[in-house]
Amino acid sequence: MRYVKDVALVIRSKNAGPYELTFDLMFPDEESYDEVRQSITKAKIAQLYQIEESEVLSLVHFAPAHAIKITIVRPRASGDLGETDVYGAQQHAPLFDLTY
Amino acid sequence: MDELRILSPTAILGYGFPLASFQAGLERSPHVIAVDAGSTDPGPYYLGSGQSFTQRSAVKRDLRHLIEAALTRNIPLVIGSAGGSGAKPHVEWNLAIVEEVLAELGKTARLAVIYSDIDRQLVAEKLKKDQVQPLGPIAQLTEEEIFASTNLVAQMGLEPIMEALQEGAEIILAGRAYDPTAFAALPVLKGYDLALALHLGKILECAAIAANPGSGSDCLMGYLYKDSFVLEALNPQRECTRISIAAHTLYEKSNPYFLPGPGGRLDLTKTVFEQLPGGKVRVSGTTFTPTDGYFVKLEGARLIGYRTISIAGVRDPIMIGQIDEVIAGVKERVEDNFQELQDYQLHVHCYGKNGVMGALEPHPEPGHELGLVIEAVASTQEVADTICSFARSTLLHYGYPGRKSTAGNLAFPYSPSDVSAGAVYKFNVHHLMQIEDPKSLFPIKMGRSGL
Fold first, then answer.
1. Shortest CA distance from A47: residue in chain B
2. What is the ipTM of this complex?
3. Which of B41, B96, B131, B429 could connect to B434 by a Cys-Cys bridge, CB 3.0–4.6 Å?
4. Cα(B249)–Cα(B11) distance, rounded to whole angstroms?
5. What confidence category does residue A25 fall into, taking pLDDT thresholds of 50, 70 and 90?
6. d(CA B57, nearest CA chain A) in Å
7. By C-alpha distance, which of B259, B261, B258, B265 is closest to B288?
8. How far is A15 from chain B (nearest CA, A)?
């Protein structure tokens, strides 16, 4: 078991519009991308963020950038009452705990 | 023409750019300078209130260089999503700056202003006709929400900007516009491939963010050909790499293969990214699939109240150990004390525990000190001030079990401790609407401006 953070080049989060939150995991080369992508599942992401699997809207492999993209339902629309991160730029930290 | 050159000076009008990069771009003889001014990222306040999220002096600084270069070289300048959110107050704000710059330069220009505000009655009728649908994981629109929005805009497609160019506009100030349109309108008008023009625009709208290292305040050059396009960073400290350009397609999108916009969607499943010498990247293979019917994205925001905040730190380990119970106890006291006031929300952000992620936080264990933001939102500023003030004083002297620090629970960095933060808005429209004519919703005002 290894940590994704030890091989990923980029681990980031951002709003994809006001109602969705999107995560990008990017890898330095095709080998590491291929190795990691098999073991990243919607269920793992749901567990990490303590949300329902149905709230993980998509998980896409994007080979041209050696990237895995995961999009979840935002806990609330950007800027709604109770907001903690208007841009959604600091919601990626749990991905540092991701293993493969 | 077999090469069309587009200069993108900066990611957002007002974010600035090094003059050396801009000069390098001008030396490549661009056919158009285009810039995107908009984003929903800064949240609902800006669309709702009609304010810009960029500062006037920074926008004026950028515009002075852009306008002077465009008029001197006799090439069009296209600005998309004026004022950040593109509603009428934003467009008028940006227009005043353009006119001021023209006057200071002693120049005149043929100016086109394109509005994107949408008649609420029309949206209500479209809703009844089942021609409005939610975009993303949200509820269907209601008539109440349509009329509650303080500003309601639609993202225009290429067509209104192409018409303004055809009419000979030298400066185009567009309201809310699909980001790539400011860049893609001229090439599509000249007969270049729609898919490639839009995909190029999609990358250029963020300027040097797509380069390596990325920057939101530096220029990027686009070269469009019959069957491909090429990107070049204009600052010798940056370069475009195959990965940086491909990766940019991921940015702020939910799916990098399909990028929807007015009238159809870009399809990147067959796109090829190719590294060229000199820090350039060639892109080809992108296609465009028209949708059955022409849809525009509606954006609206409504006022929900007024906010007051108070910032304080906590260092006492006994209090930190029971911070959730203490905050719950304070909320109860506030509720009990103001039973006649129903119309407020009290929230305490707890930095050092789960202030950044709230319920998504997997490790909500508090650190040795906490930063609290007490936040009250109410229907009037006075009620928000009252609730925040009462919550703050209650928390300051709250007696929790085992308390040894009986003089006060909070460390305030400021006097006064409370800040009235003003109006609060929320996004309340984020829907697709089917329209018949891509131009009729976006009226163009043409005129000679300056001097």
1. B362
2. 0.93
3. B131
4. 15
5. very high
6. 24
7. B265
8. 6
Question: Average per-residue pLDDT in chain B?
Answer: 96
Check the CA dihedral B347-B352-B357-B359 and report its sign.
Answer: negative
Identity of the residue in B44, B255, B360 whose CB atom sits nearest the CB atom of A91: B360
B408 touches chain A (CB under 8 A): no
CB count in 10 Å sphere of residue B242: 17
Phi/psi of residue B403, nearest 5 degrees: -65, 130
The β-bridge partners of B4 are: B224
Contacts of B254 in chain A (CB under 8 A): 16-17, 20, 22, 57-58, 69, 71
pLDDT at B451: 59
Categorize the per-residue pLDDT at B114 as very low, low, confident or very high, splitting at 50, 70 and 90: very high
pLDDT at position B249: 83
Read off the pLDDT of residues B4-45 as tens digits, 9 standing for 90 and up.
999 999 999 999 999 999 999 999 999 999 999 999 999 999
Predicted confidence at residue B1, as pLDDT, reads 57
Structure tokens at B39: 């984003």
B426 and A CB contact within 8 Å: yes
Cross-strand pairs, B314: B370
Residue B255 clears pLDDT 90, i.e. is over it: no
B377 and B421 in contact (C-beta within 8 Å)?
no
Q: pLDDT exceeding 90 applies to what percent of chain B?
A: 95
Looking at beta carbons, which residues of chain A come within 8 Å of B250?
A: 22, 24, 26, 62, 65, 67, 69
Contact B35, B79 (CB under 8 A): yes
How many Å is the Cα radius of gyration of chain A? 13
Nearest to B359 among A58, A71, A75 (CB): A75
Q: In angstroms, what CA-CA distances link B72 with B8, B64, B67, B109, B390? A: 17, 12, 8, 11, 60
Using CB atoms, pick whichever of A17, A65, A86 lies closest to residue B43: A86
Q: Cβ contact (<8 Å) for A24 and B247?
A: yes
Contact B347 A14 (CB under 8 A): no
Burial annotation A9-25 (CB, 10 A radius, 16+ → b, else e): bbbbbbbbbbbbbbbbb
Q: Residue B191, class by beta-carbon neighbours within 10 Å (0-12 exposed, 13-18 middle, 19+ buried)?
A: exposed
Nearest to B373 by CA among B317, B413, B426, B339: B413
